[in-house]
Amino acid sequence: MFIAHLTSRIEEQTKGLVMKVEQLESQLRTVNAKLDDQEQYSRSNNLRIYGLSEKKDENTEEAVATFLRQKLELDIQPHHISVSHRLKAKENRTRPILIRSNSRAVKEKIYDSTRRLKGQRIKEDLRNVEYN
């Protein structure tokens, strides 16, 4: 009798815990989806420039503006770019530059001009991790 009562209580508690875990997993999926949306939005004005040679003590804002004017024939000034810096490189490659434009229009103007490039690439800065 005592063991049956104890087993019944344990089963009850286990069911409650299973329901709580399922609820928390659902909340976690929702939070992860919202986080992913926020991260995608925060990157919406970002681009990565690959293949731009690196110079000692370079000013990346000036280097990017010069590159965009000369290679893409765009009138992009340093003040159109709010952030620019080199990222880590894989192996012994030239480090890419991450840029954040001040507006979506500037980013699209740059990205739409990439077909003119030879030897360099410009890609959108997208997330590469998906949540299940």
Characterize this entry briefly:
By secondary structure, the chain is α+β, with helices and mostly antiparallel strands. Helices cover 47% and strands 15% of the residues.
Describe the structure in your own words:
- There is one protein chain.
- Helix content is 47%, strand content 15%.
- It is of the alpha+beta class and 132 residues long.
- The chain has two domains: 42 residues; 80 residues, Alpha-Beta Plaits (2-Layer Sandwich).
- Strands 2-3-1-4 form a four-stranded antiparallel sheet.
- It is elongated.
- The longest helix is centred in the N-terminal third of the chain and has 41 residues.
- The two termini are 45 Å apart.
In CATH terms, what is the fold-level topology of the largest domain? Alpha-Beta Plaits
Tell me the major beta sheet: 4 strands, antiparallel
Q: What is the SS-derived class?
A: alpha+beta
Question: What fraction of residues sit in β-strands?
Answer: 15-25%
Q: How many discrete domains?
A: 2
> What global shape is seen?
elongated
By DSSP (H or I, 4+ residues per run), the number of helices equals 3
Q: H/E series, N to C?
A: HEHEEHE
Which percent bin holds the helix content?
A: 40-55%
**N-C termini distance:** 45 Å
Rg over CA atoms: 25 Å
Level-2 CATH architecture of the largest domain:
2-Layer Sandwich
- How do the strands line up in the largest sheet? 2-3-1-4
Query: Kindly state the mean pLDDT as a whole number?
Result: 89
Q: Please identify which CATH superfamily of the largest domain we are dealing with.
A: L1 transposable element, RRM domain
CATH class of the largest domain: Alpha Beta
Please provide the count of β strands.
4
